[in-house]
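Thread: "does anyone have the structure for this chain?"

Original post by V.I.:
We have the sequence but no experimental structure in hand. Need at least a predicted one for the grant figures.
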Amino acid sequence: MQHKKKIIGICGSASRNSGNLSILKYIAESEKSELDFEIIENLTEFPHFRTELTDKNVPKKIVEFRNKVSNADGIIICTPEYVFSIPSGLKNILEWCVSTTVFSDKPIGIITASASGEKGHEELKLIMETIQTDFTEDTTLLIKGTKSKVSQEGKITDEKTEFELRKLIKSFKELTKKPAGNTV
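Reply from O.Q.:
Generated one for you, tokens below.
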């Protein structure tokens, strides 16, 4: 029996039942035979980042998050763009990890699903590069006009978007099979 890869999906949206959460649920459901997929969706539960606590007295919730990231075979982030940037909750949990190596060489899938999303997508790619994650252009996807491509019931309604997601998932799974530190 093949070992299932442990994947953490991080939903950057602050909205309940967002298109971003639906996309992560789609990935989790469609890949359940190969991926052990856990979604972290309520980023408001995490304490605000404080530099004086990055090494000592780190809040328990942050220690647990760092451990999940460290122990995962890969991470997929799916987020909207807010005011030409990434949402504050997503930035907050990433800031808690900057002083660590939990993301170093970690295979990452980056999905920005928003009305436009270009600036937020570029910003997230820059942050992920800065904290030394492992991703390729094939493991990143910008989905513009999400509301017309994901129904309120959480279904992917656009064939091109579904095709692009399948392509990203395939590339991401290949990335998780490589030894750490070997980028394409």
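V.I.: this helps a lot. DSSP finds five helices and five strands in the chain.
O.Q.: and The chain has one domain: 5-177.
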